[in-house]
User: Fold these one by one.
Assistant:
Number 1:
Amino acid sequence: MAKLLRLENLGLFLLSLSLFSQLPFSWWLYPVLFLAPDLGMLGYLAGPRFGASAYNFTHHLGIAALLYAIGLVTGLPLLCLGGVIMLGHSGMDRVLGFGLKYPDSFQHTHLGWIGSGKGAGASAE
């Protein structure tokens, strides 16, 4: 199942590249902005519960799709760009095994535990 999920998320990353190619931006912008969703990790400065919420907001595939759709409907390519970057970043994160966070620990994700922390290798509930 893990291989299938990684393949699916690789597809989302590739989709983001395809959608980006339709936007009126230079290609250098994609890698420059690629790590921008990780700014959500700054929420952890306010504690693990707020940090998990902030991180999950900036890595949520539904929000990425919503941003892109609103950008299409309103004719605002910057919103499309935000959605595409979130989609590509989140897809690649999940290919690498980084998932949405539970509020108890940064290492506890919906894909299981990351790193060598508590419960490493165990699958998430």
Number 2:
Amino acid sequence: MELADARRAGLYNIGEAAKRSGVNAKMIRHYESLRLLRKPKRTASGYRVYDDKDVHTLRFIRRARDLGFSMKEVGRLLTLWQDRQRASAEVRKVAQGHISELDRKIAEMQGMRRTLVSLVEHCHGDSRPECPILDDLAAVRH
């Protein structure tokens, strides 16, 4: 099958699949290499071609990544999504684990912010060379 035949059959080249899914071509190839996306069909000249199911899968991956799920979590969610016999409890468990990780990261970032606010408040910000921000960064910690 040539690319023109593929288009007539409702298949898309990688550029069109990227445009339809919102996932760039480089990431599409990356998702294929991670086996998050099935191996694409190919034209006689070797071009990748994708169908609507592939584009839908790419949109799913993009949305999961937009929500910050790790590649491993995306893989698990894809498996659950494709399994019509799944228990929603499994999906919920993955999402709750991700929420816990987000909460941990948020707390860590809030701590960093508090530290930086304190350091900035103690910095004169004038022509003097003394700087509590740099002093803190240079402090030896164990």
Number 3:
Amino acid sequence: MLVTGPIGAGKSTVARALGAELARLGIDNAVVDLDDIVFMQSTPAANPEEIWRRGRSVHAALVARWFQEGVHVVVAHGPFVGPDEESPLLVASPAARVRRLLLWVSYETAAERVQRDSSRGLSADPDFLRQTHQRFREMAAAIPTPEWEIDTEVTSPGVIAELIACSIAHRK
């Protein structure tokens, strides 16, 4: 399960809720956040592209390892925009069936959400947030067609998690 969307769309919240709902339905799963993996690095000399490339590589290896350990569903979430950014996952887990969830949110709502979250660093900067939202919208055409595309301003994380978990459970 690949969850993507712009900053503040609720990727982490939905992914955690989905993991909990899958577990409630008796489906073992792991939730793996690309951002967490990327920000584990302490590499002040590296450029941002290299930091993200390495993070994606490690994230993909971790997702693959969960499958090797017998986990049935891995909820991988992060800012995956286009085939180049998700290709490490596909290469690392070639047998996995990828199901995609694309979350949307307006810049204004995202700005409100990130301002309420004290753990936000750069993503709370209004100019950075606006730039990343604009980039995400511009690159959205490169995202492989998602199975679900949901606006998190009108649908709660719990409802999204229930919808997707039920779909996964019925197709198992």
